[in-house]
Amino acid sequence: MSFAPLRLQSNQYQTIIDHCLDGFPCEACGLLVGSVDKHYEPTGEIDSVHPCRNADESTRTYTVDSRDLLQVTRQADENNLQIVSVWHSHTHTEAYPSETDVRQALDPSWIYVLVSLRNPQPEVRAYRIITGQITEIDVIVSPE
Amino acid sequence: MAVEVKIPTVMRASADGQASVDGNGLTVREIFSDLVNRYPGLKANLLDQEGNLHKFVNVYRDDDDIRYLEGLDTSVSEGAVVSILPAVAGG
Fold it and tell me: In what residue span(s) does the MPN domain sit (chain A) (predicted)?
């Protein structure tokens, strides 16, 4: 099965990077809101980017603060959109889902975005995680 | 007494695809009991084997996390919105 790429505008991409850098040395996290098709598959188009608090305040794990999750869910509902993706940073490892990420991958329809900060230039990659199987998808960044 | 229960996308398949359903009960526990009777597939998502709130699920009554109120015994008034939010986490 082929999946739609994740399409971010450059300012959305930068918001993600900035939040990850701001959160360092802890992992940072956030949510992406977008549209889904009739099969509940994300189209890959992102309407809005929502930096969230990491409730774990940890260098090794993240949990999206449930108050932020509630707010983003409400906003998405009001706009007839859905949360389609979660992103988080790996501060010292590659931009690839960890065992914990795979085990706790909540929703098979979501796009899981990883931001590695181990090199001076942050690296952003995106994946689908379905029944434990990881498939990388393209990330396309376009000008605003 | 009717309240609105918001169902997260990942659980909607267990609730006939609905984003929100009517809930009946005076507490979150009663509402969930009624809910899992109607939608048995939700039970494993909401409650552990002892009938406690699953550790990976957050439940809000309007703007308040019920863990900081009275848990499943939190009272719910007519017109309230109960939001079910699965934990979004990883490492």
Answer: 6-133
CB A85 within 8 A of CB A52: no
Is residue A72 within 8 A of residue A51, CB to CB? The reply is no
Q: With a threshold of 0.90, tell me whether the complex ipTM lies above it.
A: yes
- CATH, residue A120: 3.40.140.10
Q: What is the pLDDT of residues B12-54, one digit of tens each?
A: 999 999 999 999 999 999 999 999 999 999 999 999 999 999 9
Task: Enumerate domains of chain B plus CATH numbers.
Answer: 2-86 (3.10.20.30)
Q: Which residues are CB-neighbours of A58 under 8 A, at least 6 positions away? A: A26, A27
Q: What angle do CA A74, A48, A44 make, to 5 degrees?
A: 110
**What gap in Å lies between CA A134 and CA A38, rounded to an integer?**
23
Q: What is the DSSP letter of A106?
A: -
Nearest Cα of chain A lies from the Cα of B10 at a distance, in angstroms, of 6
CA torsion sign for A124, A15, A38, B17 is: positive
